[in-house]
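Consider the tokenized backbone below.
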């Protein structure tokens, strides 16, 4: 699978031992953190919860294990795509097709494994498949599937609301976008150090602000024809953590830095037409509570700041 499309949550093969997971993550440079859990795991040597950090900071990996159906999950939402891909390949994470196939298993426990894997990976595209499981289920399995369908329904509603909010915000900010041809307006939209702190994780703000102050942001505003509302797309930064209807409309660079962005801040991208008829994908407007700020192509400044990570094959930090 393309690293950029790997989901926020990896589903691992049921027979993967916790010790192998821990060893793999530690070899990649992660350190296991204390969870505060004091009860002994149901299965010896197989804790239900574990966490890893990158030397005490981002990115963070969260592990959970359901011993009943042997569902092992790694939540890697803040991990950049390339490193996420290395983890997925090293631990042979199950593919979306594997999760879909589990829903067709005749064994109730395997089928339930697929149901909860679909929920944890937010596979709202599998709602119909899960409904078919419920139609043929009884007893405890049917109860569990009913609960899963409620969760999937909530996820589908949240996704719809996210899309609707994005459309409404795009229409509301259209006038601002079309006024950005004015250099004086663009100057007023330039970020301050406080704006950087509002949009990004504290660990990179000093270096990011210094880069902005010294060299400015790498994006430029070309001459563009007026854009229509349907050419704009708005998304919360949290949506950049996985491939979806909103994040896919932004430059891929946002996927790489998503773990260091405040997930609740709304960002805007739009496709503009140049006078000669060519098109250009613009980006970087972000709403910071009281005002809009323009940080075009900011990922080009942020990505070098997080390249302390072992993102190249074979390169491990010690």
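A designed sequence for it:
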């Amino acid at each position: 699978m393309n690293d950029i499309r790997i989901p926020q949550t990896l589903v691992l093969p049921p027979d993967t031992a916790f010790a192998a997971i821990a060893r793999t993550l530690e070899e990649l440079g992660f350190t296991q953190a204390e969870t505060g859990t004091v009860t002994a795991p149901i299965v010896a040597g197989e804790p239900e919860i574990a966490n890893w950090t990158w030397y005490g900071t981002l990115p963070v990996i969260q592990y959970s294990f359901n011993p009943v159906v042997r569902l092992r999950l790694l939540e890697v939402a803040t991990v950049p795509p390339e490193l996420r891909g290395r983890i997925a390949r090293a631990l042979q994470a199950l593919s979306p097709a594997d999760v879909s196939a589990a829903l067709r298993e005749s064994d109730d426990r395997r089928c339930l494994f697929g149901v909860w894997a679909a929920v944890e990976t937010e596979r709202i595209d599998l709602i119909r498949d899960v409904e078919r499981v419920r139609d043929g289920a009884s007893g405890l399995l049917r109860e569990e599937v009913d609960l899963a369908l409620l969760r999937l329904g909530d996820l589908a509603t949240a996704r719809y609301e996210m899309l609707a909010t994005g459309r409404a915000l795009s229409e509301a900010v259209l006038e601002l976008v079309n006024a950005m041809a004015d250099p004086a307006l663009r100057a007023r939209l330039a970020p301050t150090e406080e704006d950087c702190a509002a949009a990004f994780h504290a660990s990179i703000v000093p270096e990011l602000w210094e880069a902005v102050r010294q060299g400015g942001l790498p994006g430029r505003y070309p001459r563009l024809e007026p854009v229509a509302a349907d050419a704009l797309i708005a998304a919360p930064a949290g949506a950049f953590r996985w491939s979806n209807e909103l994040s896919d409309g932004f430059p891929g660079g946002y996927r790489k830095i998503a773990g260091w962005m405040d997930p609740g801040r709304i960002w805007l991208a739009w496709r503009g037409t140049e006078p000669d008829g060519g098109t250009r994908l613009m980006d970087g407007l972000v709403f910071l509570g009281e005002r809009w700020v323009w940080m075009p192509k900011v990922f080009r400044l942020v990505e070098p700041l997080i390249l302390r990570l072992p993102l190249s094959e074979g390169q491990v930090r010690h």
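Residues 1-94 form one domain.
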